[in-house]
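== Sequence and structure of one protein ==
=== Format: two labelled lines per protein ===
==== Data for this protein ====
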Amino acid sequence: MQFELALLSFVTAFVVAMLCMPFLIKLINRFQFFDVPDLRKMHSQPIPTMGGVAICIGMAIANVFWFRFSNDQFVVAFFLCIAILFALGILDDMHNISVRNKFVIQLAAASLIAFSGVRIESFNGLFGIGELPISAQYTFTVIAIVGITNAFNLIDGIDGLAGGLGFMSLLMVGLFLTIGKDSNIALIAFSLAGGILGFLYYNFNPARIFMGDTGSLVLGFITSVLCIKLLNVKMPAVLPHAPVFIFGVVLIPVFDTLRVFALRIWSGKSPFSPDKIHIHHLLTTNGWSHNFTSKMICAVHGLILVLSYFLKNVSQETGVAILIVSMLLVVFFFKKLKFVHLAPQNTNFSEAVTE
């Protein structure tokens, strides 16, 4: 029954998002809510944005049908924060909200989740750290939620990439939450994954619509919170190395964000300054099409998810080290993977709007 509800939630969100998307594209074209080319972006023509609206509508309707709502403090706080991030994304896609204001709202949402009772309570023995002091629980929870939310937002720079990474991550988190008897919360993961799949049909190269902050902020936020929920689910037989597995779930966007920030600071620039050094740029600047680049990075993500699970047979410290070394090798490989004949540059490409 648990997986039946998961499937129903996924399919409902997928169908609703697919049905909403053509209407949304027409509406956005009518009111001209476009992602307009500028110095930060590579697409040459205005492209409709706010595809996240259809994703969230699909998720919301699926949850109305299948999610068991309650007055639980966390459930109320979680959906309230999703609504706030959704509204923030719409406003940013329409009016370009300042980074500072977005950051403050994200901090408030993350703090609300922490105060609702869902926190990083323990590192489960990683680096010899067990249960954390209460102040550290709040600190690490807020940092993790805000960091992962922005990491997904920043990697949303090429058709299908953020959606593809999020889709696979949500399915894995939803699967293990269900196995860990937290199947009701898992429905949020499955419904968002279904909405994203409906969106990807219109977003994969050549994109007819972008996710925008409306989608990427909600995607990153939900993924981060559900990862914390999974961290607190005790499954010693199935997932004895939960911190390592969760690190693998968010590895690509988080690693890329930290790498890019470090390179910018090393060069004497602001960590938020625009440039072309994200992981997807390593392939596109070497001549690979944006379609190939997105699928290649998603394939790497799939391999990392599998690797993260099977690292349960080694120590957690070794597992983290293997994942970091794996990403360093991926970056090195991408830098060297040159296409003999330069592929024509795709016009439907957008730098993440928060940079």
